Give the backbone structure.
Amino acid sequence: MKLITKRADYAIRALCVMAKNGQRMYSAFELAKKLKIPGPFLRRILQILNKRGVLKSYKGQGGGFILALQPDNIFLIDLIEIFQGPVKLNECLFKAKICPSISTCILRRKVDEIEKFVVSELSSININSLLN
Amino acid sequence: MKLITKRADYAIRALCVMAKNGQRMYSAFELAKKLKIPGPFLRRILQILNKRGVLKSYKGQGGGFILALQPDNIFLIDLIEIFQGPVKLNECLFKAKICPSISTCILRRKVDEIEKFVVSELSSININSLLN
DNA sequence: CAAAAAGACACTAATATGGTATCATTCAAA
DNA sequence: TTTGAATGATACCATATTAGTGTCTTTTTG
């Protein structure tokens, strides 16, 4: 069971590096080298972050990526949802449309509680809090 | 992101049915029909529960499966670990053997906290508590 | 104009999950 | 003693997700 996939993990690490050095611009490959991550893979990840408004990008020589948001405004929950979709722990249970017995309802309620906790924890962590 | 896969979900439901009717024996197909689950699939699930000591099985005509444990001694955490392996939310982070920066250590600690909560919640629920 | 960057997109590989099919074995009942 | 109903074991298939590559286009700077 994975809470954080590689895509999201790499995104978090890259953003941490970028947050440390204020307004500097980074190319995908520079970051990839620093973090020992496959270059083309990280590049795609940064492109997605750009589309989602977390990064700004500049093409051409000397171009690259730079933070579009303050580091304390980039929350883990957002990054995870960008790369993994919404955090829904009870997905499979809900697919069984009709609740076949009271028991699964109790189970569902429990799972919902866990989900709420996970979401609230992930919402409390931002890039800035990972730097201290 | 899935907390409970279909295998574990089906196992839970089947065990709930079996727990309701004390010491009756159920064939895989009888349970499958009652729960509207594909027969051969549930059969494999019950075989696994048998191997893991949650069920006892009897071959031959009139055979089937019966609980090997008291319903309040079968915990969700065990069922999930049987079908999905240990609940390790930080798997992917640990694979990056060496902690590449202090930031991922903080992240790891946070993820560990979440993991502990999930495990303790799942450890507090047993089949019996799903029946009330 | 050349090189260095991102944009876009198609593709492959590995893994996990959900599910099927088949044959062997056991056991009870007719 | 034979038959049928059950599990045991195992191989297989389909689909989805994740991880990662490759290639071509576009933009921008020097």
Q: What stands out?
A: Chain A has a mean pLDDT of 91. The two ends of chain A are 28 Å apart (CA to CA). Chain A touches chain B through 44 residues (CB under 8 Å). The longest strand of chain A covers residues 55-58.
